[in-house]
Design goal:
heterodimer; A: MetI-like fold; two-stranded antiparallel ribbon; 2 strands; 71% helix; B: mainly alpha; MetI-like fold; 13 helices
């Protein structure tokens, strides 16, 4: 360092000070752009979907008639399909994601902890279209011949079992779509749950072990109570993913607009319906109905994600 | 009695441990199986033609070149938009916003956007750009849709890493008499650089596989649509091919050769995404935003 310069007597503002407010304004504008984007999504969906919502009214949500030829649109099929497939996916993947997260925190040998943890996080980043393709080309054919046909064949006539498994055994149905969704959100939920479990202070867990608790007791009596609310938040984040997922589902759900009444029936979700039909919409009302479905999807996911974030807010994850 | 209780506790514990081992094995095997079928099917279909020929009708020799180029172009434009908006927004949240109500609102909305359904982002951009401002399906619209998905990721990471910077760094700027924005640019951004870069890489990995937002914006194109002689801003104002779109179209088609190319495309995307994620890990060991 050179010898210290004498401190200048007159204190003019530093060079570039005039740009300070401009820079701050630019940053504020960028932040506001996020607000504008989200508001823009809501407003444009509301405006675009309004013709359908005003014409069909409440019937849009409770009617399952989706008939582009006659111009009659009821969204119950896709709405029900979205909820059913996402909840089924959550049902399948939650116990597994929980087990993986506990395994990584409590049981995994030190040597494997990092590689498996990294593998789970990397798998969470695989694009959904890859999962969708796998579902279409690998899971669906296997599922049709190895699972659907035997189960449907074994169903006693007239039983509830038969009702719940009616469908065309081609592997493209609500159940396989839910399975693909479950596999897709699994690494994500496992990664988030693991991060959450790692926030439990080591002293708490170790004091549990020190008192002679088993690992099961430490997890259920110390870890889970400690992260309870945030864990629900993490699960809802996974649900949010499943609700809005497009490509993994579009490949394999069968794309029928009926309300699925059996797990082997083909169905559709809001996202898959929009992806399939929006570019080929036959009339302005058809487009409006699809955009109205989009608005419904937005409201559902916004609610789920908002609750998830509120629950997670206590702990930074 | 004590021994019975002890037996029950250890039995439950052993069952629990067995469950955790089992589901982890099942999960890893299932995911490994997916990667395995992707690798075998993809490598079988991946040859030089995939990288050197543009898409062609089924039956004639074709590849994925225009789709790869299209994806690179749309992602590059998207990342340029997203880097500027995301870094500035993240900077505002970390340096100016503080704990004001508005900052909390933006933070909340950013977290929502982070997981918002990407198909709705596509619909939104369609309604604004395709239906009105530009009036056509176009590469620009596709890029904007992808940028909207990348921005929240970059914003979140930028804010997180800036908040990790010690206050003494900011004070050093003040002590030198530098204006605030110089302090931010020359000191904070520089010391947070690798973290911000990680955010950018994660965002890139995310958007490079996105399909749904491109369906109604970039639309897809059988041919090369970008070049000096192309109409509408060197072709950026007309529909452009993208790898995820071609995969979607080809996988759903009944033709064998198209389906093979779809696997090849899926493998290319998966490798690109995994590679970017690994790179992001190497650049820094910051945690990813959830």
């Amino acid at each position: 360092m050179a010898a210290a310069q004498p401190i200048s007597q007159s204190r003019s503002p530093p060079r570039g000070a005039a740009i300070d407010p401009l820079f701050k304004a630019a940053c504020l504008a960028a932040a506001t752009a996020l607000l504008a984007a989200l508001a823009g999504i809501v407003v444009s969906l509301a405006i675009g979907g309004w013709p359908a919502l005003s014409k069909f009214g409440f019937g849009f949500f409770v009617s399952a008639t989706w008939d582009p030829v006659r111009g009659v649109f009821g969204g119950l099929g896709p709405i029900a399909g979205t909820l059913i497939s996402s909840l089924l996916a959550l049902l399948f993947s939650l116990p597994i994601a929980f087990g993986v997260a506990v395994f990584l925190v409590e049981f995994c040998p030190m040597l494997l902890r990092r590689p498996i943890g990294i593998a789970v996080e990397l798998l969470a980043g695989i694009p959904s279209i890859v999962y969708g393709m796998w579902g279409l080309f690998v899971l669906a054919p296997f599922f049709a011949t190895a699972i659907e046909v035997p189960i449907m064949g074994a169903a006693p006539q007239g039983s509830l079992w038969e009702q719940l498994t009616t469908g065309v055994p081609n592997g493209a149905n609500v159940l396989t779509a839910s399975l693909v969704l479950a596999i897709m959100i699994l690494p994500y939920m496992a990664a988030v749950l693991r991060e959450l479990f790692l926030t439990v202070p080591a002293q708490l867990r170790e004091s549990g072990y020190g008192m002679g608790s088993t690992a099961f007791e430490v997890v259920t009596k110390i870890t889970l109570p400690y992260v309870r609310r945030s864990a629900v938040g993490a699960v809802m984040l996974g649900l949010g993913r499943a609700l809005g997922e497009t490509m993994a589902v579009t490949f394999i759900i069968g794309n029928s607009h009926d309300v699925p009444t059996s797990i082997f029936a083909s169905g559709s979700t809001i996202a898959s319906t929009i992806a399939n039909e929006f570019n080929e919409a036959t009339s302005p009302m058809h487009s409006a109905a699809l955009i109205a479905l989009g608005l419904v999807l937005f409201i559902i996911t916004f609610t789920v994600l908002a609750i998830a974030r509120a629950l997670l807010a206590e702990r930074q994850v | 009695m004590g021994s019975l209780r002890r037996f029950r506790r250890s039995a439950v514990d052993a069952a629990f441990m067995g469950f955790c081992w089992l589901v982890t094995a099942v999960a890893l095997i299932a995911l490994g199986f997916i990667l395995w079928s992707l690798a075998t099917q993809g490598i079988g279909a991946l040859d030089l033609k995939a990288f050197t020929l543009p898409t062609a009708p089924s039956g004639s020799p074709g590849g994925l070149l225009n789709a790869i180029v299209g994806s690179v172009i749309t992602c590059a434009i998207a990342m340029m938009i997203a880097a500027i908006v995301g870094v500035l927004a993240g900077t505002w949240l970390a340096e100016y916003g503080g704990d004001t109500l508005y900052a909390k609102l933006i933070r909340f909305l950013n977290d929502i956007l982070l997981s918002a359904p990407s198909v709705l982002v596509g619909l939104f951009v369609y309604n604004i750009l395709v239906a009105h401002v530009i009036g056509r399906f176009s590469a620009i619209a596709g890029s904007v849709a992808l940028a909207l998905i990348a921005v929240p990721i970059i914003t979140r990471t930028t804010e997180d890493v800036l908040k990790l910077q010690p206050t003494s760094l900011r004070e050093s700027g003040v002590a030198l008499g530098a204006p605030h924005w110089t302090t931010i640019r020359k000191i904070l951004w520089r010391s947070a650089g690798s973290g911000i870069l990680t955010g950018g890489l994660l965002a890139f990995a995310r958007i490079s596989g996105e399909t749904a937002p491109l369906l109604f914006t970039a639309l897809g194109n059988q041919y090369f649509s970008v070049g000096l002689h192309q109409p509408y801003f060197f072709g950026l104002g007309q529909p452009i091919a993208a790898l995820p779109l071609v995969i979607f179209q080809y996988a759903m088609s009944p033709y064998d050769d198209w389906q093979h190319l779809a696997w090849a495309g899926a493998l290319i995307i998966a490798i690109a995404v995994l590679g970017t994620n690994v790179l992001a890990r190497i650049v820094t060991r910051e945690r990813r935003p959830s």
